[in-house]
Please model this.
Amino acid sequence: MSGIADVARRAGVSKATASRALTGSSQVSDQTRRRVQEAAAALGYVPSTSAVSLATGRTRNVGVIMPRLNRWFFAEVLEGIQSELLSHGLDLTLYDARPGTAGRRRIFEDFLARKRFDGLIAVALDPDDHELDRLLRLGRPVVSVVGDAATAVVTLDEAHAAERATEHLLALQHTDIAFLGGGETQPWASVDRRRYEGYQRAMSAAGLPSRHIPAPPSLPGGYAAAVDALSDARARPTALVAVCDEVAVGAIIAARRLAIPVPGGLSVVGIDDHEYAEMFSLTTLAQNPRQQGVAAARMLVGELQSPTAMPASHVLQARLIVRNSTAAPSGTPGVVVTDTGLLDHA
Amino acid sequence: MSGIADVARRAGVSKATASRALTGSSQVSDQTRRRVQEAAAALGYVPSTSAVSLATGRTRNVGVIMPRLNRWFFAEVLEGIQSELLSHGLDLTLYDARPGTAGRRRIFEDFLARKRFDGLIAVALDPDDHELDRLLRLGRPVVSVVGDAATAVVTLDEAHAAERATEHLLALQHTDIAFLGGGETQPWASVDRRRYEGYQRAMSAAGLPSRHIPAPPSLPGGYAAAVDALSDARARPTALVAVCDEVAVGAIIAARRLAIPVPGGLSVVGIDDHEYAEMFSLTTLAQNPRQQGVAAARMLVGELQSPTAMPASHVLQARLIVRNSTAAPSGTPGVVVTDTGLLDHA
DNA sequence: TTGTATGCGTTATCAA
DNA sequence: TTGATAACGCATACAA
Model:
C-alpha cells in the first residue's frame, strides 16, 4: 500500500531520487541507492503498474492471441511464451480468439484496441485481411508463431516437414500413400494446407497421384476418418501421412481395431512428436512448440528493448524420428515384416 | 491516439462531462450524451487503461493462476473463464505456476504483488500455507476452481465422484477393484487424493480391501502403469477405477495390447468425460470443466460488482455415463459377456 | 548527485 | 446538468 513517497521519506530523499534509485536509470550515489532500496524492501514497496504505465507509456505486459487453447500445440507454445516472459518480468494477457465467434470479433474490435500490451504474439491465428489490418495498425510489434509473415514470424517449415514425411514412405517403397487430415470443403487451416502441399510435392516428384482423406484435426477425428477409409481392404492405401500426430495416433488405433497390423499392413507417419508419439511408436517429424514459444517471446522482447525494422523470420526444420509405425509395404522383396511389425532384412 | 480532451473539444463540452457521458455514471442530458458518443466514435476514442486504472483503482482485468496449461481439464477451465470474462469486457492475465519451479516462486513473490487485477481465479493450485497466505493478503477477491476453500470455490465433489464410480463396479458384482492413479511416494495432488478417498470409502463400505496402483496423471502414464499391473493374469484385478479419463484410456489401450478384452476381461471406469471418452466407449463420471470456469468467472464478477462476505461454495456432482468399458466380471451368473463386450441378460 | 515541478489521461470532488 | 480543478502514483526535464 505504500507508495514511492513513503519510500522517499523513509530514505530521507526526494521522490525523484527514490524513483531513480529503484529504476536504476540515472546516476545515483551508491550510498543513497542502497538506502532507498532498503527503505523499499522494508516497506514492501511495489510500484503501481498503472502509474508506471501512464508515466512511461510501457505496460510491461505482452498480449498473446490464439484461436484455441486445448490442443497440445497451443498449450505447449503458450507455456514456452509464458516461461520466457516470466524470466523478463513481463506479464501475459491472453486472448482466446476462436474463429467465427462473436468473441473473436469483440477481441479484434475492442480488446486489442485497448493496447494493454507493449507487443503481441499471434499463434496460428490465420487472420483475415481485416483482422491482419487491425493487428498491424495497433502500432505495437507483432510476432507470429505459425503463419506467413507480414509480421515477424517463428514457424516450422510445414510443407517441407510433410514432404519429408512422404519421402520417408516413398523410400520404403510405398506407392499408395494417402494424406489424412484437412477439411472436406470448409476452408483449411493454413497449417493443414501447407502440409498437404508438401505431401503433394513429394508425390508428384515421385510421379505418383495424391490422395486425400479428410479428417478433423484431433485424435477422435483421425480415428473416425481412418475407420471409414480403411474398412475396404482392397481400396485402402498402404501408408498414411497424417496432418499431425493426434490424427496419426487416431489412425493407428483405428487400424488396430480393424486388425490391420501397423506397420505390417499399414504405415503411418505423423508430424509433431506429440506427447503420445512414443507410446504408439509413431514415426514422426518432430517439432518443438514450446521452443517456438520461447523463440517468439525472445524475439518480441528483443524488439521491445531495441526497436528495429522488424519483420524477422525464423523458420525451423522438423527432425525425422523413425519409430515403429512405418515399414516397407508387405510383399516388398528384400524385407520381411514380422508379426510384431519389426523390420528384418532377410 | 486521441484522448478524452479531443472528444470533449469536438463535442463542445468539458472533459468532465465527456467522461460522464461515456462512463454512463452520472446524470447527463440525453442530447449531450449523444453528441459526446458521436464525437468519441468519430475519433475512434479508446480510453487509456492505465489512466482509468490509476483514477479508479480498478483494472478491469482478472488474473488466472494454474499449475499447468497442457492438460484437458486446465485448458477447458481456462476457455470457460476466458469466454465469460470476455462477455463482461474483462481482460485476463495468465500465470503459469508449475509446482516446484523458480517461476512459481517468482509469481507468488513478485507478479501477484503487482496486483494487475481486480480479482483472481486459482485453478487446482494446491497452494501451500505460505502461498495461500500470499493469496489472501492480496486484498483482492479470490475464487478457486478445485480446492478446499479458504477462498470461494467452484469444485466437483471429487470424493463422491470416485465413490460412485466404485459403486458402479460393485453393483456389477466386482470385488477385486483397484484404484489406478496417484503417486508412489511424492505428495499427491489434492484432487487425486480426494478421489482415492472416495474409492476407499466405497470399498470399505462394501467390506472389501482397497488396492492402489500408482500412475502418472496422463494417458501414457496410465498405459505404462496398466501394462505393468495387468501382465500377471492371476494377480490382476477385474476392474479399475482410474483417477481420470486420460489414465483410464491409457489402461484400456494397455488391456488391448495385452489381449485382455474390455469390458469382458477387465472393466474400467474413469472420471471426467474427456474428449476421448466416447471414442473408447469409456464409462465415466462426467464433469464439465468449461462450465466450472464459467461459474468461477461469474462468481468473481459478481463479487467485483457488489462485494459481499465472500467464501461462497459451489460444489458440483458428477454424472454417471455408462458406456461400454464396464460389465460384470466374467463368470458372473445371470449375465453373459459377449465377444464385443455387450452385456446380455440371459 | 539531488530536488522541484510538470506531465501522463482519466475519474471524482466541488461549485456553479 | 455542467465546468473547473484536484487527485491517482509514478517518471522525467530542468534547475540547482
Observations:
- Residues 80 and 290 of chain B are 4 Å apart (CA to CA).
- Chain B touches chain A through 49 residues (CB under 8 Å).
- Residues 289-305 of chain B form the longest helix (17 residues).
